[in-house]
Amino acid sequence: MGGLRSYVSKLLICMAVLAVKQALPDRSFTIDYDSNTFLKDGQPFRYVSGSFHYSRVPAFYWQDRLDKMKMAGLNAVQTYVIWNFHELKPGEFNFDGDHDILSFLKKANDTGLAVILRPGPYICGEWDLGGLPAWLLNIPGIVLRSSNDLYMAHVTEWMNFFLPKLRPYLYVNGGPIIMVQVENEYGSYQTCDHQYQRQLYHLFRANLGPDVVLFTTDGPGDHLLQCGTLQDMYATIDFGAGSNSTGMFQEMRKFEPKGPLVNSEYYTGWLDHWEHPHQTVKTAAVCTSLDQMLALGANVNMYMFEGGTNFGFWNGANYPTFNPQPTSYDYDAPLTEAGDPTPKYMAIRNVIGKYLPLPAGPIPPPTKKYAYGVVDMEFTATIYDVLDQLCPYGPILTDYPITMEAMQQYQGFMLYRTKLPQNYATPANLTIEGIRDRGYVIIDQVWVGTLNRVNATSMNITGSEGMTLDIFVENQGHINYGSGLYDPKGIISNVTLDGAILQKWSIYSLDLDNILPKLQSLHRQRNRKMGNFIQERAPHWRDGGYVPSFYLGSFPNLSAIDPPQDTFLKSSGWTKGQAFINDFNLGRYWPRAGPQVTLFVPANLLRPSPVQNTVLFLELERPPCFNQTETCTVEFIDRPIINSTVAARPDETFRDRKYIPEGHDFTDLRH
Ligand SMILES: *[C@@H]1O[C@H](CO)[C@@H](O)[C@H](O)[C@H]1NC(C)=O
Ligand SMILES: *[C@@H]1O[C@H](CO)[C@@H](O)[C@H](O)[C@H]1NC(C)=O
Ligand SMILES: *[C@@H]1O[C@H](CO)[C@@H](O)[C@H](O)[C@H]1NC(C)=O
Ligand SMILES: *[C@@H]1O[C@H](CO)[C@@H](O)[C@H](O)[C@H]1NC(C)=O
Ligand SMILES: *[C@@H]1O[C@H](CO)[C@@H](O)[C@H](O)[C@H]1NC(C)=O
Ligand SMILES: *[C@@H]1O[C@H](CO)[C@@H](O)[C@H](O)[C@H]1NC(C)=O
Ligand SMILES: *[C@@H]1O[C@H](CO)[C@@H](O)[C@H](O)[C@H]1NC(C)=O
Ligand SMILES: *[C@@H]1O[C@H](CO)[C@@H](O)[C@H](O)[C@H]1NC(C)=O
Ligand SMILES: *[C@@H]1O[C@H](CO)[C@@H](O)[C@H](O)[C@H]1NC(C)=O
């Protein structure tokens, strides 16, 4: 930061501190070290909280989920603040609708739930790049999650912009926020940079004032806590069901000899990955450890209480073997992805009832579901038919491929195009070491093979000089955890053909926002001469040369259902792609991989009759109507299928995903 700018920002921070100092006299939230408890307004206070990330549930349903949390006996809700959800592009902020975190905080407050806020800047959370904006990856020399100046300049700018918005919502100022977490499981990251934590501490204090409890969360291990904690921030831990709570809290006590016991992430379930079996944790195990912790007087946040959905392209991925998470973030939590109470919910409520008064009144019922039934899907366009609409400003011309982020695109798909420099009559070795993450290799608009970063970075191709070689690349989600955070997408290496570097690329950034109107007008034109159109395409398909294409359907088909109800979009028969409902990017489907087969469609996305709703698929690999013996349909059903069987990849385990104590057999806890 330049001298003047730095002076001005210091001045602003001083003014900010003055502005936040006027706490309401009768409201306080503090730590009583001697009595090992939190104090709220001077009285001992223990929270039983649940994680619920506003970015994973439409704003339409926030109140419903908060009410159900309240009725479970919880007195607090914990959420991350997701930086990249608010600043997807540098300086372009989104705080509207589903992004309106202040409205979320107000709803929590009105529901009578305290808020434990975790503004990162890094959050992990199985979220794209752990919540960090992918544009940070464009900055040469940046060191994420460290005191590196380049990184801290952007963190500072964001926090100085965002944190002041929270002031009216702090407990001392009449709002619900009792505690604010700094960073997330920082001890699990390799940088172990205490200066970074100190800088964050000052940034948070300067913007939030002296009266809010700042804390950290780490796995219960010496090394993790050494790197993750810092003086003046209360050190808390996280661990799951089946752990010996007494033993775990002894780890915390090494770093906080006095003060309240806190488990900031008590796992009610577990996360999923594509191509791996659906994860669950037994209700009995969850209840036993919860009971133990509450009996010890501990404060507990259940992660997740309501998991929700990774809509659009927001899922993250794990590492070292690249493993993206699916669209559903159900998490086997007490409330399902669709917000419905489960037997786990009832059992947890019973445990909480032993320690805290349960609110009177009925538990809100599950939301209504409707099976809208089978919907015909019509082929509408290949990506080539709409390339001009998807990339209105045309391609960028470069000698060598550049990354998706360098193209200032941070999610989705990108097309890399060049020409074959000579004839390749015998198979030539096409190698893309840096394919991120999955690339469809298409020659003169005929698919010839699929590459992926895990186990297929080369293939043989043939062709003649001048033919168009396209690599259609999918970003499957930025790595959100561990040492793999530097995960730029697209093509991040050179592309070689029999060892020679291919040059002169045209790179098309593909924009899927507002895709529906573009396709619908095309669809109407096409419909008039659909017969010819299909004829034109059919030969390619018969040769196996399918290229990524759009399919459109509309519903309801029979009697209209008013008001619209939640439903589940079943993708069976399709292979892999992106689904949209009324132009809303619902998420990825990949039933061939599993375990997720249906996508949750919340009612707020649907329009009341007589308006037709549209469902759009961008199918990347092979639609059910690939050959003419089958039809292309989807089905809307009234229950989720997120646990279909998968042929598990044998190549890795997830033991490194979170701190799991030695000898702890996680598999024992699964259903
Ligand atoms: C939070 O709720 C309390 C009443 O419980 C109200 O007095 C206060 O104004 C609310 N604060 C905000 C920020 O909505
Ligand atoms: C739990 O841990 C404590 C402290 O390490 C130990 O004394 C106790 O025996 C353990 N309990 C079980 C059931 O393993
Ligand atoms: C309605 O659904 C039926 C099958 O349930 C299908 O045969 C028919 O073509 C559909 N009609 C429209 C307009 O989509
Ligand atoms: C690629 O082509 C080379 C040369 O023809 C051949 O030796 C090799 O087996 C082929 N590899 C694959 C995977 O087909
Ligand atoms: C290679 O990785 C892809 C992508 O994860 C996976 O679908 C496929 O099953 C893997 N193939 C083998 C042979 O392991
Ligand atoms: C391409 O060449 C690389 C490097 O020699 C080799 O590892 C790879 O197996 C080859 N791919 C094919 C499809 O033959
Ligand atoms: C691609 O090759 C060119 C020419 O050899 C080289 O300058 C460039 O650094 C290479 N790019 C990558 C990402 O390796
Ligand atoms: C059409 O697809 C079905 C199912 O994948 C397959 O059984 C059948 O052989 C295919 N027919 C042709 C002509 O490819
Ligand atoms: C998936 O979950 C449902 C509902 O809990 C259950 O009935 C079904 O047996 C499960 N399927 C698999 C393959 O585990």
UniProtKB/TrEMBL annotation:
Manganese recorded as keyword: no
Keyword rRNA processing appears in the UniProt entry: no
Question: Which Gene Ontology BP terms does the record give?
Answer: galactose catabolic process
Q: Where is the Glycoside hydrolase 35 catalytic domain?
A: 37-354
InterPro entries in the record: B-gal_1-like (IPR026283), BetaGal1-like_ABD1 (IPR048912), BetaGal_gal-bd (IPR048913), Galactose-bd-like_sf (IPR008979), GH (IPR017853), Gly_Hdrlase_35_cat (IPR031330), Glyco_hydro_35_CS (IPR019801), Glycoside_Hdrlase_35 (IPR001944)
State the EC number(s): 3.2.1.23
- Keyword vocabulary terms for this entry: Glycoprotein, Glycosidase, Hydrolase, Signal
Where does the record place the Beta-galactosidase 1-like first all-beta domain? 401-511
Please state the span of the N-terminal signal peptide per the UniProt entry: 1-23
Reaction(s) catalysed by this chain, per the record, are: Hydrolysis of terminal non-reducing beta-D-galactose residues in beta-D-galactosides
Q: Which family does it belong to?
A: Belongs to the glycosyl hydrolase 35 family.
Matching PANTHER family: BETA-GALACTOSIDASE RELATED (PTHR23421)
Query: What is the name listed in the Swiss-Prot or TrEMBL entry for this protein?
Result: Beta-galactosidase
